[in-house]
Input
Amino acid sequence: MKKIIIAIFLFSLMGKTMGQELKKEEKHDRTVFGNVSSFGGFMAFSTKVGDINGQSSLMVGGEIAGVFSSKFNFGIAGYGLTTNVDADSYDSNGELYEIHFGYGGLLLEPVIASEKMVHVSLPIILGVGGAGLHRRSNHKLKSENSEYLKDKYDYDTDVVLVAEPGLNLEINLFKNIRLDIGATYRYVYDSKVKEIRDQELSGISGNVRLKFGWF
Output
């Protein structure tokens, strides 16, 4: 009799536990790619140190993304060149043109073992950018009618395609703050700017990124 009572008790306890688990699963948001157990988001500030046209360069930018089940980030990103990079052609004053460059697009980022203090993320940016040759901005205009007024204008600009995969080591500093340290490789396609080839804008970069949000 005691065995029957114990069996009934264990069976009812198991049924209660399974029911609670089913209720938890029912709360998950259903999507095309499966159930999403949680949703968050973040805003990030990032710097990338690399090489453009054989010269050291610094790009600064940011990202805004949603976080799905702590395993996948989806959002947008944008970066711009902040340092002076010389081109290989000269303006009418005998000075080298400067390269201006920036890009942005979709951010897709799988995250591996995000519950651990130190884990890995695999971001990729797919988008478009703008590249151009510009006259140096330090030419002072004598007047609105000065011949130097032309120095304000771009020499040549073009839209380019950009794909940038990467690998980051991510550290959970606090509950809502994460630090990424890693590297990316920027592929640039279809540059038609005079004397700026795709390979001169492409290259590897070391990056540091600080994320603020709910993960």
Observations:
- Helices lie at 2-26, 198-201.
